[in-house]
Design a protein that fits this description.
This is Lipoprotein Spr/probable lipoprotein NlpC. Keywords: Hydrolase, Lipoprotein, Membrane, Protease, Signal, Thiol protease, Transmembrane, Transmembrane helix. Belongs to the peptidase C40 family. There is one protein chain. This protein folds into two domains: about 1-30; about 40-170, endopeptidase domain like (from Nostoc punctiforme) (endopeptidase fold (from Nostoc punctiforme), Alpha-Beta Complex). The strands form two sheets. A five-stranded antiparallel sheet has the order 6-5-4-3-7. The protein has a two-stranded antiparallel ribbon with strand order 1-2. It is built from six helices and seven strands; from the N terminus they run αααββααββββαβ. It is about 40% helix and about 20% strand.
């Protein structure tokens, strides 16, 4: 083999070896991805960690249903209607229709002590309760958002922290 051919052969082998190493290292090394720390990944983890599989199915069945004031079905639902239907179907509990009335039938507790299924109440428009959701775990809750429909959301977001006014389980 002449020098020129040997050099091309070595260069080709070098490229093949480097490509193989790059492929193997990409497949073999598990690096944390940027996605693993996103809100969506954390919400998915909260869903996966639910104790009640019936609650998991209920939420996945309703996720994405659009918001409609006064709505109580898959064509549109509001926050208190969603909390009412969830509590009726999953826990066998009856709730009043309006969020401010639902807040009157809970045993209030420290938000740091919330458990799966507890209700969380917010006052976006001032001092009066005007929104309700259902606590899941890991600081996440499910609710019917006016802009995004039924969604799992992060209670640690400032938009929720500043307006959280009451939380706890339904009185039996």
């Amino acid at each position: 083999m002449d020098t020129c051919s040997l050099r091309r052969h070595c260069s080709l082998n070098f490229v093949i070896i480097m490509a193989a190493l790059a492929l193997l290292s990409a497949c073999g090394i598990r690096r944390p991805s940027a996605y693993s720390t996103t809100k969506a990944a954390k919400a998915a983890e909260a869903m996966a960690d639910l104790k009640s599989k019936a609650l998991y199915r209920f939420i996945t069945d309703w996720t994405g249903v659009r918001y409609k004031l006064g709505g109580l079905d898959k064509r549109g639902i509001d926050c208190s209607g969603f909390a009412l239907l969830l509590n009726r179907e999953i826990y066998g509990l009856e709730l009043p229709r309006r969020s401010r009335d639902q807040a009157d039938v809970i045993r209030e507790k420290d938000p740091a002590q919330l458990k799966e299924g507890d209700l969380v109440f917010f006052a976006f428009g001032g001092n009066e309760i005007d929104h309700v959701g259902v606590y899941l775990n890991h600081g996440f809750f499910v609710h019917a958002s006016t802009t995004r429909g039924v969604i799992v959301d992060d209670m640690s977001l400032p938009a929720y922290q500043h307006v959280l006014v009451k939380a706890g389980p339904v009185k039996n």
